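Hey,

The postdoc asked me to send both predictions to you directly instead of through the lab channel. I've kept everything plain text so nothing gets mangled by the mail client. Protein one:
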Amino acid sequence: MSDSAAHSPLWWAAPTAPGAVDATVTVPGSKSVTNRALVLAAHSAEPGWVRRPLRSRDTVLMADALRAMGVQIDETVNPDGGEAWRIIPAGLHGPATVDVGNAGTVMRFLPPVAALADGPVRFEGDARAYERPLHGVIDALRALGARIDDEGRGSLPLTVYGAGSLTGGAVDVDASSSSQFVSALLLSGPRFNKGLEVRHTGRTLPSAPHIRMTVDMLRKAGARVDAPEDGGTRNVWRVTAGALLGRDLTVEPDLSNAAPFLAAALVTGGQVTVPGWPRRTTQPGDALREIFTRMGGTYEQTDRALTFRGTGRIRGITADLGAVGELTPVIAAVAALAEDESRLTGIAHLRLHETDRLAALAKELGALGCDVEETEDGLRIRPRPLHGGDFHTYDDHRLATAAAVVGLAVDGVWVENVATTAKTLPDFPELWTAMLGGGDVAEGDATGGAAAAGGTADPGGGPSGEAAGRG
């Protein structure tokens, strides 16, 4: 126990699994889909619905930002359960101030929206947000005719002086540090007077599935999009100017947020079922089926759900995670518990996420006894006997869920600020504890699920119920 943590209320005792898990976990909606849907609905020519959206810090920040620019968002409830948000487009306007928090989708998707507003829009955020790259979006918008004051930083804080419209046209972008640069421009492209042609000029393009998600959602909203995967020019996307349709969209479960729960099946040799896992999806989290199978598990998928099973053994893996980098923390946690070495590559861009995820994983897994080497573009993980200790999360939600996975097999793992998971996965501690109790687990009724199974849903940490301060 560290001296600093002994008197802090921010530490959570990661529960150790009492045995093989056997649970059904209903994962909340996708953050990536929810925030894209909100932007597209704001640009639409008619009202639309977003059903079963994720309610988390990132999505609330997005909704509040759009409201600040004049969009009406009414929050209601579906007759069959879950939330339903009615989005009524309006003339975008300033003056407005947007708090992006540390949400990449908000800080990158909304400057193009603000360029279409009538009046200035100021963007501010958390301290870490000021360190994250925005130059790709800023430079592209300037090339397309937008006026932006960032005092030469290429990052937050900044002000976009919207003129009510943007000419559009062709623009080059180096999206090597974030595919969100491309998605940000594409989402507003149909509203530009001449449409948009985006050419990625960098050597690498991380998280390409997220661009495919953007293209797919644009098309479903009525936009005409030419993309490389359809036989078009490599690294070039074209969006034709035109009106977008108001959609009635139901948000898929967030498959990336399913990662720790599927990992729990693998680590404990149990099984976890995730209802609503789509047969066809552009979400990067769908790759978990193949990755965790290679690491020793098996899965069965129906039209209603995906069930993943552990076999009692965990194998190391060599994998290029460039397309699915957000899955890295949980995969690294599982790799630390494997029988042999793992090499994770293609993820240099993770140094620019909520924290430097490569350095953080190497340091925190190493502090628990694992041999982790940070490489030029990834991690080399050599499993060793692990022990309990402090796991710092650096206000990164995916570091917190990775720590919880390690804690299943290692007694005495204390997780700093597990509440940071509210960024994309509200009620994570309750969901986690309820999963260990067995039965059906869903956001909002995790307490009931755990109690029915004879466990506890105390957010402080599992069957023992330990929480908060440790002194």
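Protein two:
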Amino acid sequence: MVSAALNKAAVLIEALPYIRKFYGATFVIKYGGSVMRESVPRSSLMLDLVLLKHIGINPVLVHGGGPEINELLDKLALESTFVNGLRVTGPEVMRVVQMVLSGQVNKDIVAAINSSGGRAIGLSGLDGPIIRVEPISSELGRVGRITEVNPRSLQMLSQEGYIPVLASLGLGPDGQSYNINADLVAGEVAVALNAAKLIMMTDVEGISQTVDGHKRLISQLNPRTAEALLRSGAISGGMLPKLEACIRAVRGGVGRAHIIDGRLDHSLLLEIFTDTGIGTMITPDTGEDEDDELVNANI
């Protein structure tokens, strides 16, 4: 029993310098995809967010909702196609996207945080508006590229003790709502808020490389090396926008960006408040070559 108590004390002592360092700072957390549908890590994340708020850190949660959108589109027998990983979003599909993101997923997350002892308020990029976009292409329909982020509403809510929960929608120049990749929203919001951290919750442990036939986690990258990995074709699928958003965020003034396994209980706290962390951290370029050996690695 004494040993267990000492272990708990050691955990708190290890976390103390990080709590001091980040008191008053803003963390932007991106949450979505398959991770959002797993109940146990979901409940632990809600508690993690509440804890962060209580110790003086301001979390802002950005979410998508791809699986939930697909589910409702299937029920309504509406076809959904993708071009280069982006959902083609016509008017009918956009109505479903907006309904699911703002009306279902956002409110479910807000309710979960509030029932865990926090105070959350749900918004989308349309409110304010927080996010303005331009159409990416006529082929994609109502899919937007971010042109402006106004973080004032998020800052006001944080200052009043709330946890803002932001759905990945934006306002177009035609006054219509647009669908936006949630990873890119999180990155741009982190820059606009001058966040200390951008944290991507995903369903893998981070970015891995294969060495002698064995995968191992890359615990740290800088933007220069991360860009080399992108150019090499080693990063694909859903990891592409995540890494691109992390690079953009760190280059835009965000202190650190992290890609972590959201399937693990309390993965947010383990990444932030332990010396070793559990995922991949992207740090600012230093001009040094400490990461060059990773450029030619197989991911």
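Summary for protein two, as requested: The first helix runs from residue 2 to 22.

Thanks,
C.
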